[in-house]
Amino acid sequence: MPDRRxxxxxxxxxxxxxxxxxxxxxxxxxxxxxxxxxxxAPKNLMVELHSNFxxxxxxxxxxxxxxxxxxxxxxxxxxxxxNDWSELGFYIFTSWQDGHGVxxxxxxxxxxxxxxDSWHWPIGVSLSTEIGxxxxxxxxxxxxxxxxxxxxxxxxxxxxxxxxxxxxxxxxPDVAQGIGFAPGAKIGFDxxxxxxxxxxxxxxxxxxTSPDTLHNQQQxxxxxxxxxxxxxxxxxxxxxxxxxxxxxxLIIKGILGRRFDWGHHSPVx
Amino acid sequence: xxxxxRFTQLAAASSASLALPRNVAAQMTMPGAPSPESAPPIPPxxxxxxxxxxxAPYTLDASPKHHIQTIAYNGQVPGPLLRLKQGRTVTVxxxxxxxxxxxxxxxxxxxxxxxxxxxxxxxxxxxxxxxxRISFIPDPAGFRWFHTHTFAGNxxxxxQFSGRHGFLLxxxxxxxxxxxxxxxxxLALHDWGGQMVPSADGSAMPMYDFSTxxxxxxxFGEPLRVKQGERVxxxxxxxxxxxxxxxxxxxxxxQVIALDGNSxxxxxxxxxxxxxxxxxxxxxxxxNAPGVWVLGEVRKHLQAAGLGTVVEYASxxxxxxWIQPSDxxxxxxxxxxxxxSSASAVFDATVTExxxxxxxxxxxxxNGERWRINGRSxxxxxxxxxxxxxxxxxxxxxxxxxxxPIHLHRHIFDVTxxxxxxxxxxxxxxxxxxxxATSTVEFVADHPGNTLFHCHQQDHxxxxxxxxxxxx
Lengths: 269, 472
Known about the structure:
The complex is a heterodimer of chains A (269) and B (472). Chain A is mostly beta strands. Helices cover 3% and strands 53% of the residues of chain A.
């Protein structure tokens, strides 16, 4: 997915600072999700719509990148299960904004593998890698790559997940920046069988060898709820705040997913 | 969630056992349940017993690639066949060389609670390193079995998840009652390498690495060698801790003659067998299709997991053949002498009804559910009082989305309705109660003493799906 570096700069001073900042200015918030370790079952297609709106974000064009303020991002994610331990995901990113209309932003492809259940690991572990393109008006770094280890664990009513993602730019101003560190984490609690509430954390610390100052790091905390109304449906909604200057200050997100089982099933399968 | 620490805390609050350390005894029984006493030792200078069971660690080699470290009887899986004579007193020495307290449940027999083998009824536990001797009169006749009856909790290597199960055949005192057959074969279906994984309905449930018949995955172990024209009596036991299994023999059909060891008035032909955990089926197969065949799970993924064996006719060679059925076919009513009984015949005013509602309480996606009978989980479940000689009808309303293999110790059910199908004259000690339906069974209270009633899925009984009937 496009990295979640929102690099919100809301003042002219910040714009000036950005000119000298290490990172190129890029939009994010197309897919705001902490991954769980499980993969989509074979012969199943997961269709997800990620809808993210930024009520309070970047208000200026920086480095030729459109501002995020009042921008609506709609992302379609298609994930096909390949076997019991792998899947392949594909993203179509779009953006809508007053004055720009509906715009195609880019596409990514994301293969993922996981530790099979038969290994009996006490935690869920999977590894995702994602490569793709996004238009320069939404991200100066047009070709990017990410590798995302995923670890999760369910303990009774509690759910924990960590995604210590590493990012790399192949084409764009940040190509010489090396590897960036953009972790995500989630903690959730089952209120009922259908309702889980919790928090999600997203960050971009900048280069892994030379992290940005806290002021320039992107930090977001979302209060979220997952609604487990049916095995076929996935519903996640949340409100996030970005307390640092480099982050969009307020984001509303939603994920609506529907699982389609296209395999032929008989009672004797 | 019930953790080992929690077990110990609860055990510390419960009554003391005679010889077993409290926390050790409590590990093998439900948290909060009374701590059982320890079994008496074998008297010095006692004469040799008729049978000996040694409970000890064992490595099962189900194939060159499938190995399980488990606990077994007499160094084999399944355990030894104990063939007893109805009404003739037998003594069994039990040596516990495993690291945990244990006991042996004699499933389907009319035994006193003290030796039935359920701590919830008051049967004593055998401490690690200890031995005990039991003596009993086998009754009733038929295909029964013996197995551990201990708590597994979150450790899916313990309890019925282990290899502690064996065949028990009680030959009738009336030899004229024996069916006509040429030879008998005993088959035990089991699942291994369980782990709790999230299920589609939200709570964790056991999934398994592989499955076996008589301790081997399909393709390994000795085939069942038969001769053309033989009538082979198969005694099939589902010793799985949690899984229902469907069995067929390619090219052959079954003449079912007994369910759970209880003879049917007339044999019934069936293309396949369905066995819930703890159920048994005795069926004659006429060997009239020479060749090499697969006897295995009807469902493809479970046969692929190993649940099968090879049936090989004398002088036949080649790869074993499997003919895949297209559907699952089984119905209790087809084995009842009287199906679709009228309502007036089923609902007899002299029978005392005991309504039981089964449901579960969500405990988090990382846990199994907490199972409840009439809104309460064991050890807080009700204890209905039975009067000797009276007849009772259990009206079981299963509100859950799971089927439950229901078992009543030391008694036999007269199955009267399952999921809406009424019947008469079908006698069983385990009945699979379908989800979201009401089923009824009747029984006569003719074996005084504490009597355990439970779902035979190990994870369900460990999570509260038990209750104890008491006699007045």
